Q: What sequence folds into this?
């Protein structure tokens, strides 16, 4: 059973008590239900063995799904180099976002009569070929593992806005898409505008840095809580295929923060699905450590000792020996739900 609610804050404990109160009752699609005179919700969908039905009886084995129609939405759009490339169908990737994904998303919000508060942020990373290309006295310049200077850019299009008609947002997004690459690549030098740096590919972008920007205000969500909002949703729209080259410590930190906050991330790829499993995080780490030793605790007379292998996850293992070479490792974050957008899909 799928239950929706809006304009109220419902904790996880309230959801559990709400679920218990529904047991032993009959419900139908569209029924308005309440608990303790405070929590209000509506039955949106009932499924039995994957088949939609109009009504049903709730038992202790019924799975209850709660969906908030008034949550906080962070939408990050990766403006990497591929955004201005052509897809296999001859359409630019940024056109797929502006004429396909976002109109469909905003239309679903309108049909569902949602009341989300939304923030839309454009982000990208610029690599500089030479240190002379770096703007002077710029403290935002960092260096990657290959000692390449780079700078991360973010542009907030809207911040915590609610609208009844989100289709008007498309005009603003089109204007920002056209202006964004010009603003991050051009700089003034001796009274003239010059191009400086190169836009990074999607796989080398600042995806984890952008995710942590959305997690920062959620660290103290229990302070000054908005009682009209429930839930935090993070959506990353990228023209890439779902593989990213990241820093190991930042990936470890982001994973821990996502677990602590109990939220997941929706990754929407505008490209075609690759032939490998995604999402995939690539990082450098020291060689995986293994220790084989005899386990004498379970040794029996006349039998050979069992061998126990202790294997550390390379993501959480930092070798103090700096002489050991680093190798490429891959991780599949379970807190990311990856999907691929296709204009021709149903």
A:
């Amino acid at each position: 059973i799928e239950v929706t609610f809006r304009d109220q804050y419902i904790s996880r404990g309230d959801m559990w008590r709400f679920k218990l109160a529904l047991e032993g009752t009959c419900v139908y699609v569209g029924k308005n239900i309440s608990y303790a005179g405070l929590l209000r919700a509506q039955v949106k969908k009932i499924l039995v063995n994957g088949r939609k039905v109009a009504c049903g009886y709730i038992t202790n084995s019924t799975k209850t799904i709660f969906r908030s129609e008034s949550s906080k939405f962070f939408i990050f759009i990766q403006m990497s180099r591929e955004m201005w490339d052509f897809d296999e169908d001859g359409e630019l990737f940024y056109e797929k976002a502006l004429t396909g994904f976002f109109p469909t998303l905003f239309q679903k919000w309108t049909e569902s009569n949602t009341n989300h508060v939304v923030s839309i942020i454009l982000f990208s990373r610029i690599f500089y070929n030479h240190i002379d290309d770096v703007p002077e006295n710029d403290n935002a310049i960092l260096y990657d593992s290959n000692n390449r200077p780079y700078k991360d850019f973010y542009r907030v299009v809207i911040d915590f806005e609610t609208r009844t008609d989100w289709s008007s947002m498309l005009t603003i997004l089109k204007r920002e898409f056209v202006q964004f690459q010009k603003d991050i690549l051009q700089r003034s030098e001796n009274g003239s505008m010059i191009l400086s740096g190169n836009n990074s590919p999607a796989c080398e972008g600042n995806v984890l840095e952008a995710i942590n920007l959305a997690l920062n205000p959620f660290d103290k969500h229990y302070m000054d809580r908005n009682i009209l909002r429930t839930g935090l949703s993070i959506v990353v729209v990228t023209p890439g295929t779902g593989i990213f080259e990241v820093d190991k410590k930042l990936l470890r930190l982001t994973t821990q923060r996502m677990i602590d906050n109990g939220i997941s991330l929706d990754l929407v790829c505008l490209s075609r699905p690759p032939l490998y499993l995604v999402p995939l995080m690539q990082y450098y780490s020291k060689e995986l450590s293994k220790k084989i030793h005899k386990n004498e605790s379970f040794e029996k007379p006349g039998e050979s000792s069992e061998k126990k292998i202790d294997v550390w996850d390379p993501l959480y293992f930092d070798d103090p020996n700096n002489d050991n070479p680093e190798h490429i490792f891959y991780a599949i974050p379970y807190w990311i739900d990856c999907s691929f957008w296709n204009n021709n899909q149903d």
Summary: Confidence is low (pLDDT under 50) at residues 291-300, 303-310.
